[in-house]
Amino acid sequence: KAVGIYFLKIAFYTALPVYRDTYKLVLEIFVSTKNFPKKYRYSLGSGMERDVLVLLRCIYRALLKRNFSFQ
Description:
Helices cover 83% and strands 0% of the residues.
């Protein structure tokens, strides 16, 4: 039963405008880094991809922390 409640609270993070905008940014970064010169693709490109994914994880964790602090 607790698992169902946990899932319902997590399911709403995709409704946040900041999450949707960051997700669009993730997609744009992944597409644009594919067109980087080979010299920069693995250094600069992978760093950008990693950093933008960290943003998504931070938004998700902040929502989790906020949701579970009200219990």
